[in-house]
Design goal:
Layout lengths: L17 H10 L6 E3 L7 E3 L10 H5 L5 E3 L6 E3 L15 H4 L4 H5 L6 H9 L3 H9 L5 H7 L3 H4 L12 H14 L15 E5 L3 H12 L3 E6 L7 H4 L8 H13 L3 E4 L4
Parallel strand pairs: 5-6, 6-7
Antiparallel strand pairs: 1-2, 3-4
Length: 265
């Protein structure tokens, strides 16, 4: 079809560059941004051309399936309803784009927020939980007490309002807690090495989680009469119910870690 303009809603385009970057990589063409001012909105980068490829790389690069090929005309289209405005960094490929979304950058644990929100949207709740637990062992806890800076940096806010990332994480964590077959991440074969972790606060529990995944035999020593550290001593039960806290700690024990309290030393 030659070089014609990409047909998309430029009012709603967030300038994430995924389509441009994918097209450049596919065709080896230089891409120069054209800054456009639309009404009172901030300037954004508008693609300069589109090949409307039969197997469009831009459609593959978009993690939200917001770019698609019209089956009747073969024209590449942009769906502003699916676009989350993830604001990918220019020069990155589609897969790298998922590591540079502003929500992930703002997350202290650097959870791949864009990935698990997208999976949850598709109903793939277990896969979404797996993504979270690569970076955060305690989604039900963080889904309640985290100040969710990811939402403050969500690019969807420029369209309507931020995605409820915090609530989605809590939902996924609680869904796993209520399931009869809780998710245990893949673990390497048991090693002979033993590791002692001092303190069963969030840092100690997370340390035990990742050590257990690597196959180490872990024992956590806690001087208090209950595990949890500041999760127990510093956060009131109305904010973090104790049954939720105990269930998350039990998941660490299920991975083979042993928790020894002061009274049992």
């Amino acid at each position: 079809m030659g070089k014609v303009s990409l047909m998309f809603n430029e009012i709603e385009c967030m300038g994430c560059h995924a389509c441009e970057v994918a097209c450049k990589q596919e065709h080896g063409l230089g891409i120069g941004p054209r800054v456009v001012k639309v009404l009172e909105r901030a300037p954004f980068f508008k693609p300069l051309f589109c090949h409307h490829c039969d197997d469009a790389p831009c459609a593959k690069a978009c993690p939200e399936a917001a770019i698609r090929i019209d089956p009747l005309t073969g024209v590449v289209l942009h769906d502003n309803e699916k676009c989350t405005g993830c604001n990918a960094v220019p020069g990155k490929s589609g897969m790298e784009k998922q590591d540079t979304a502003s929500c992930k950058v703002a997350c202290p644990a650097h959870i791949n927020v864009q990935a698990y929100v997208s999976l949850a949207l598709k109903g793939r709740y277990e896969d979404a939980l797996h993504v979270i637990k690569e970076a955060n062992p305690f989604p039900s806890i963080c889904g309640r007490v985290c100040p969710h800076p990811c939402e403050s940096n969500c690019q969807r806010e420029t369209i309507d309002k931020p995605v409820a990332i915090h609530a989605i994480e809590r939902f996924l964590g609680d869904l796993d807690l209520r399931s009869g077959n809780r998710y245990i991440p893949p673990m390497k074969p048991k090693k002979a090495d033993r590791v002692a972790v001092i303190g069963s606060g969030p840092g100690g529990l997370a340390c035990a989680y990742y050590l257990a995944r690597e196959g180490y035999r872990v024992t956590i020593f806690e001087k208090a009469s209950e595990p949890g550290g500041m999760l127990t001593m510093g956060i009131p039960a109305y904010r973090l119910p104790r049954d939720i806290l105990r269930a998350e700690i039990d998941s660490i024990s299920a991975m083979g870690a042993t928790i020894r309290l002061f009274l049992s030393w």
